Prior knowledge:
single chain, alpha/beta, Aspartate Aminotransferase, domain 2, Aspartate Aminotransferase, domain 1, 2 domains, seven-stranded mixed beta sheet, three-stranded antiparallel beta sheet, about 15% strand, binds pyridoxal-5'-phosphate
Amino acid sequence: MIPITKPALDKNDLKHIKNVLSSKILTDGFYLKKTENIIKNYIKSKFIAVTHSCTAALEVSTILINLKHGDEVILPSYGFVSIANAIVLRGAKPVFVEININDLNISYEDIKKKTTKKTKAIYLIHYAGNACEIEKISRYAKSKKIFLIEDTAHAFLGKYKNKFLGTFGDIGVFSFHETKNIVGGQAGCISINNSKLIKRANFILDKGTNRKDFIKDYKKKIISYKNNKKFYSWVDLGSEYRAPELSCALLYSQLLKVKKIQNLRKRNWNIFKRLIDKLNTRKCYLVKSSQKSTSAFHILALIFRSTKLANDFKKILQSQEVAATFHYVPLHKSKMGKKFCNYRIPLTEDIYNKVVRLPLYSDMSKGEINKISSLIKSFLIQK
Length: 383
Ligand SMILES: Cc1ncc(COP(=O)(O)O)c(C=O)c1O
């Protein structure tokens, strides 16, 4: 079976993992610090913490902005469940909004329509690695004094006008899950761009304690007695959100080759784009980025004219051992989502089962690319 995704792993990854085991330092070590510094410098962020998942980073974000009962939070219904959970876990209300037809990114117009006096934050997703209308949304959020959080799970190193995605809003969150462009096994990170939010971040990340102040040298685990305080203590809300050393070692190794991985993904994505452009079909179109942005090339997705065409296409590919799948099911239509939403979101409801995701990863072989290409071609030229 040709899978939807495959992590780009090699023996260098193993070398760094072995280093951790020989060091016997399994938390808060060299690799955590190193990956945080690399990401911070790379995307030009004010604060980076590597977490055990993007889900964890989302939870940190909801604590940081003090979400509480009575607050409303805007998010796309066509999106991942972790954003909705993070909001509901704080007692706030998710307000699901529409997407755009061309790139499946959150609709700026619907954000404006659904903003009320209770709106505390907007959570957006840069779907498939392609930038949302980030400048417009960011300007709007500032004018209304609403927090903006960018879920950049798909879009590490994606850009809008030369600025990295995840650094426009107050907070950006990223995923390095097994399915993402680079992986830490299960890992993620939080980027804080609003200086006022930075102070509490380490408390929240360290189970609500001021523990970080007491660890002077991460590598040697030297405990300093800052300000004559002999113990760290409980000072805020929090949980265990940091990533373990083994994940960070893998992530570090992946960061060393991230440019190569991204270039290969871009090359493979472009092969399929050129094919679809050449076929000039009316059966489907490709989800792609706007002119002013640089995609992270995370997802290869087609949107078909009808659900039947999408299902027929998926069936043919699957019968030939090529993974071709649906993507998000609208959150507002789910069992949990219905508790918060009693209105229609028409485009989302219409489009989600016309989306087909195809395999995309860095080390796709020529044979794999040719096989998928010929299946696409024969389906799209058929009457
Ligand atoms: C948009 C989005 N946000 C968040 C997540 C959660 O990421 P993680 O698995 O790292 O918690 C995902 C997972 O795929 C996602 O697609």
